[in-house]
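Progress narrative, work stream C.
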Amino acid sequence: MRKYLVGVNVPALRSHNAALVLDLLRTAGEAGISRLELAERTGLTPQAVSKITARLRAEGLAAEAGHRASTGGKPRTVLRLVPTAAYAVGVHLDRDELTTLLTDLSGTAVALRRRPLDLGAGAGPVLDAVTAEVRALLDAVPPGGTVLGAGVAMPGPLDHRAGVPGRVTGFPEWDGQPVREELARRLGLPVVLDKDTNAAALGLALRPAAPGSFAYVHLGTGLGAGLVLGGAPLRGDRTGAGELGHQTVQLDGPPCGCGGRGCLEVLCLAAVARGELPEAARILGAGAANLVRLLDIDQVLLGGRVVLAAPDVFADGVREVLTGLGLTAPVSVVTDTDAGTTAGAGAEAKDAGTTAGAAAATKGAGTKAAATKDAATTAGAGTEAAAAESGTAAAESGTAAAVSGAGVGAPGAVAEGAVWLILGPIFGQ
């Protein structure tokens, strides 16, 4: 493996004002932004902006991007972020699959690896797999490149402050495992651990023109939600916010792996297992409606491999429920079409030993609640084949489609969001 720098605390990144400037450089993209515009948007003096940008240029984080015509005087120099100044790793630790993603400082995908995984194998074997995949992924970092850390997203419940999972539904053996501490020791990198849905919501919140409040509803091997209110993720004091799948919607309903009965997750996945996708969409819509009523959110974003297998069915079904309840505005329902597995996920995924057939065969593996396991297995079948068409279907239904890292493949909203667990603080987010 190539040598690379890790955990570098670049002096310029410690400044709040520098973070504001860096974030504006990030959102400006290749077009760049002038020092005068930076001063106007941050409220800083031109002198302060000049000092900050000089430090950023000296650290290799910013560079000139040409000149822009001025209404008077000499043309303005435009600055841009240097994406190759640093790299970050995102890890999506799902119940039956491991996805690792390497991005540059702008969040653009550089390399992607994906392999089957059984979360029920226990912390030792699973963290061995994560360690091996991340180390292999880091071979794509240029010699001497700076790796800032690894963001890890996994099913909850967990404590994101302590970096320790709780009794993950169906996998109680993970309760109290020091995941963050152990991976940081193994990798020699700073590590941040959060729930999969929280990570996805963070990544979506940092996209240009993201709504101020929304719910990211993820339906895959489980069901959960990431919540963003006022532009910031809502985790709760114990990282317990967003446990959408475990709200009771049917008293004395079927047992759920969480210990409850009649949970939204077990009912929705059971409908998927029976092949009744419109019914699953209706159940999902009931959960989304509860979120809209409770939190007065602006938008619902749907993602996850089950949604991707039939994006129109789920988008239309959830929208129909909201409309029927009079929740038509200002709420909209869109399918986040990069939140899942796509056909042809890139050479890195092939190197990891994952093929479309093998991935399909392992969906739902290791889930211990029988109803959930059956639903996850059925839901995963055919996802890879359907996902290849999901972009077209989504475009026809007016839903959003965005894939980072052309030629690398679609890492999914959770893996992309996991990267922002590391990158977000650098940009003051």
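Work stream C, second folded protein:
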Amino acid sequence: MITCDGESAPGPATGRLLPQLSPVLITHGNQQRGITLITPRVTRFLTTLAAAGGLVLTASTSAHATAIGSTPVRTFEYSVGGVTMKVPTGCMFTHVIRGNGRKITYQNAGVDCAFVGALSSGFCNWRIDFSYADTNNRTYRTSRGRTHSECKIDPMRNNSPQTLPRYGKACAHLYVNGVRRVSQCHHVTK
């Protein structure tokens, strides 16, 4: 069985092009409420939330397990080259894991931002680490990601398939400028 939990650490924009907008018709019953515009990133964010909700509500009868967990990234500021960068609210750190027992066949973690968060300059000097702990919460393995010096609004990383030596938990951690900002964990149990 795989379950999840997460935590957020407490915590001048550069010019950029705005994403293309897609029209969406808003209805209520048989009445049209109007047309609104949303970005593809917002669409992906809402799809991720819907998929996570669907997985929670769906009972699986197979031996394979999939877990998706999202944790909000709290607002924080940091300095890059003497410039203060601010990450506003509206970003979620999502960790996906698939497998069977202690065998992990797929693992991915990344950030999706919507609303005000999608308009920020993003995350600079970021990396994503995956860590594994036993049932006594002792970390026995960490897969440290590469530090990316560029600023990215949607950092993401995949990790290699593997078999864990023991049950416990698998976590993903987002570091920005060397500071852990948010974590998302899945408990791997019998």
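The radius of gyration is 18 Å. No further action is required on this item.
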